[in-house]
Amino acid sequence: MTASETRLGFPHRPSPHPTPAPQRAELLADPGFGRVFTDHVATATWTVDRGWHDAGVRAAEPLSLHPAAAVLHYAQEIFEGLKAYRQPDGSVALFRPALNAARFAHSARRLALPALPEAAFVDAVTALVRADQAWVPEPPASLYLRPFTVATEAFLGVRAAEEARFLVTASPAGPLFAGRDAGLTLWISDELSRAAPGGTGDAKCGGNYAAGLAAQAVARAHACDQVLFLDAREHRWLEESGTMNVLLVTADGELLTPPLGTILDGVTRRSVLELATDHGLVPVERPVSVDELRAGCLDGSITEVFATGTAAVISPIVTFRSAAGEFAVGAGTAGPRTLALRAELLDIQFGRVPDTRGWMVPLR
């Protein structure tokens, strides 16, 4: 058995105060995004002398951290995002959790945190969903899962912490961009950057998102839904949006997206690239400049643009704004390829079509 295949076991100790069924039903009727949480968490502890231990599913409750905990001072923290989906027969399935497990391990290595074995990651999220299965809402909502590891050692010296804690919390979730089905408007940031070569851009860590909040505030000041980051070196090449990968459909049938390196290897991004040929598109990963984006939208060689992410799913982008002005994508509405890809992906996730690729992992 390899290190990635190591299992921990996450025994369930039920919460002594579960949410009453009527209150849970009321919360599930309109969960919003990221505001409602289930009764339990999955958790495990790591120390340099014992490795991973004390794993289980327990009642969700506030954490106790020493004021000198490394995560509070040096942001030694990583997280993931994935979902569980209610199926037509009432069962529940996870979407490609092994990819999240592998990315979580990659992020851990980049942030000098202990890498949770990938099999243990899948066991943890499965155990939590099983414990809180009643919290999985009916479509179109889903159960958003947030695994994370934080450095908990109380020590103010600058080095990798020798104690850490892994947790998974769960939140019933509706659409991230509720009421924005017509499409998103993005602000092109030519000053503030998200990541640089050699940095943490391809790791899913809180610092990347905190560094993007100022740019997101600028975007909202210009009545935009999110920010589109450019590269840090030249402020010329497309990278990703604040919480999403970005893809472009061309008039000659290509599905373009910036290459990996300083951007996140999104699970939804990867899935859409694999679905592309079903929709008559050739997936291409290459650098795309902001000038090419602007010119292509204006002359019609770029016909659609959309963003992908676990929370965003596939969200059409219909307008870009920047200090240089504004331009629309196509007719300024969600494009047919975008909508078709979104429909197919959601149909797979909610079990409305056969899962021919083996992406869904049923809860046993």
From TrEMBL:
It catalyses: L-valine + 2-oxoglutarate = 3-methyl-2-oxobutanoate + L-glutamate; L-isoleucine + 2-oxoglutarate = (S)-3-methyl-2-oxopentanoate + L-glutamate; L-leucine + 2-oxoglutarate = 4-methyl-2-oxopentanoate + L-glutamate. The lineage of its organism: Bacteria, Bacillati, Actinomycetota, Actinomycetes, Pseudonocardiales. One of its GO terms (molecular function) is branched-chain-amino-acid transaminase activity. The modification N6-(pyridoxal phosphate)lysine is found at residue 204. Its EC number is 2.6.1.42. Pathway: Amino-acid biosynthesis; L-leucine biosynthesis; L-leucine from 3-methyl-2-oxobutanoate: step 4/4; Amino-acid biosynthesis; L-isoleucine biosynthesis; L-isoleucine from 2-oxobutanoate: step 4/4; Amino-acid biosynthesis; L-valine biosynthesis; L-valine from pyruvate: step 4/4. One of its GO terms (biological process) is L-leucine biosynthetic process. This is branched-chain-amino-acid transaminase. Belongs to the class-IV pyridoxal-phosphate-dependent aminotransferase family. Residues 1-22 are annotated as: Disordered. It is an enzyme of class 2 (transferase). Keywords: Amino-acid biosynthesis, Aminotransferase, Branched-chain amino acid biosynthesis, Pyridoxal phosphate, Transferase. Its cofactor is pyridoxal 5'-phosphate. InterPro entries: Aminotrans_IV, Aminotransferase-like, B_amino_transII, BCAT-like_C, BCAT-like_N, BCAT_family. Gene3D superfamilies: 3.30.470.10, D-amino Acid Aminotransferase, subunit A, domain 2 (3.20.10.10). It comes from Actinomycetospora corticicola.
